[in-house]
Design goal:
Layout (H helix, E strand, L loop, with lengths): L1 H18 L10 E7 L13 H9 L1 E3 L2 E2 L6 H10 L3 H4 L6 E3 L4 E3 L1 H4 L3 H4 L6 H7 L4 E4 L15 E3 L9 H18 L3 E6 L3 H7 L4 H23 L6 E6 L5 E2 L9 E2 L6 H4 E5 L5 E6 L4 H9 L4 E5 L18 E5 L5 E2 L9 E2 L13 E4 L7 E3 L2 E2 L3 H9 L10 H4 L11 H19 L1
Parallel strand pairs: 1-8, 1-9, 2-19, 3-20, 6-7, 6-8, 11-16
Antiparallel strand pairs: 2-18, 4-5, 9-18, 10-17, 12-13, 13-15, 14-15
The chain binds zinc ion.
Length: 436
């Protein structure tokens, strides 16, 4: 009898807990997404990185992940935060451009230009807010724009100050931790401009790149201490990733650099171009000159030229309305130059996403993640449904698949919180009947 009474009490408690709608925050759905721009997948392998190594023990590490074509900051970050391919979200370059007016706006000045970002695809911040969550973007590309008239709840847009100030990096973490712990934010995206800046300026093999990786590692150590200090260990999940890798740019006398004007008269044949921008270039031929442009560029060595409608499907670019009719992708390490060689970047990206140098990192830890779990490589487009699952929200239409990433979660295979409550209930009821 005593046994039966105890069971009855437990059952009543479980039923009332299940019947009470758990508030989203109470369910522990807090998520921090951090991006370190241009963190090549293997940057931690020739540097001592105790904190990154500990993360792999305490959480999930993917061998590497593949960014979308285009391997550039804005297109790739926007794929991560929308789960859409570039041809669907239409952020097709770091620069905002208009092929008709010849307008070209540099990356940092695009960050608050909604007309560049808002093309009918809702990023995670807005979808989460529409389902009752509180979200913020700290320097994350796309966070400063409005989508269908809606802004992200709290936004800090990247300014023009240096990207590598370690004290500032820590202050940014303190700010974000306060948002989670004192103001109950559910989703914060945090962006750092390194190691991309050093990778461009010095090249991926330069000792300064190793120095910045050590700084990133210390920052991750600082983050973990801050999570403990703010009592967020049991409620905050963290994903650390990046947008693309980096490769050393080949220069004379090692190679002959690409100068496109050697193969076609750009002024005569093209009305619009962005060509001096790493490994990826775009052109609008003058009326009736498309075939001529295509054939002239096909003769140039160390690059591949595509008519937009012939771009391989695996690039997920051909459907874009924004992309001009001709797209040029240089071979790894060859930067595109239109007329002159500008010896600025020693490292660059924008190359084919199948190249190992373009692959990037994925790490995750927190209460929802398995420990010491090494994930096979996957496409970054699949991070989006994983984030929706962690936030307990319904995703907007996307090109990712949760089945690719859910293996890294503790409760996977349909193991939602609600499902496990139902299973517990059933078991208890069976016990009750057995006891009766
Ligand atoms: Zn870059």
């Amino acid at each position: 009898m005593k046994m039966r009474l105890e069971l009855f009490l437990v059952l009543t408690a479980v039923i009332s807990a299940a019947g009470k709608p758990l508030s989203k925050a109470a369910a522990g759905n807090k998520l921090l997404l951090i991006s370190f721009d241009g963190f090549r997948w293997d940057y931690d392998q020739d540097v001592d990185t105790p904190n990154l190594d500990q993360l792999a023990v305490d959480g999930v590490k993917a061998k590497y992940i593949t960014p979308p074509m285009l391997t550039m900051t804005s297109p790739s970050h926007f794929t991560t935060i929308t789960g859409r391919w570039v041809e669907d979200h239409e952020v097709v370059h770091n620069m905002m451009f208009n092929t008709k007016t010849n307008l070209k706006v540099p990356h940092k000045q695009t960050l608050t230009r909604s007309e560049w970002w808002d093309n009918g695809v809702l990023p995670l911040w807005i979808t989460a807010q529409n389902q009752g969550l509180k979200t913020a973007s700290f320097h994350f590309p796309g966070g400063g724009a409005n989508y269908s008239g809606q802004a992200v709840n709290r936004v800090k847009v990247e300014a023009f100050n240096p990207d590598d100030n370690e004290t500032e990096w820590q202050q940014n973490i303190d700010t974000v931790m306060n948002w989670f712990s004192k103001e109950d934010f559910n989703l914060v995206t945090l962006y750092y401009g390194e190691p991309d800046r050093v990778g461009h300026a010095k090249g991926p093999d330069h000792p300064d790149r190793k120095t910045i990786i050590r700084q990133i590692d210390r920052t991750i150590g600082y983050l973990r201490e801050a999570i403990d200090l703010h009592n967020l260990t049991d409620s905050l999940n963290v994903i650390i990733t990046s947008d693309h890798g980096m490769t050393t740019i080949k220069k004379r006398p090692q190679v002959d650099e690409i100068i496109l004007n050697k193969y076609l008269n750009l002024i005569k044949l093209a009305s619009f171009e962005i060509l001096d921008y790493g490994g990826f270039g775009i052109l609008t031929p003058r009326p009736g000159r498309e075939q001529e442009v295509f054939e002239a560029l096909s003769n140039a060595p160390n690059l591949t030229v595509y008519k937009k409608n012939q771009i391989p499907e695996s690039f997920h670019l051909a459907k874009s309305e924004r992309l001009p009719p001709i797209v040029v992708v240089a071979d790894l390490g060859f930067n595109l130059n239109s007329r002159f060689i500008v010896y600025v970047n020693k490292g660059d990206h924008g190359f084919h996403n199948g190249e190992m140098d373009m692959k990037t990192i994925f790490r995750a830890f927190g209460p929802a993640f398995r420990r010491n779990f090494l994930s096979e490589p996957f496409d970054s487009v699949h991070i989006y449904p994983l984030m929706c699952k962690l936030l307990h929200i319904d995703p907007a239409p996307h090109n990712g698949s949760l089945s690719v990433t859910e293996e890294m979660l503790l409760l996977h295979g349909g193991g939602s919180r609600r499902a496990s409550v139902s299973v517990t209930l059933m078991l208890l009821m069976m016990l009750m009947f057995a006891a009766l």
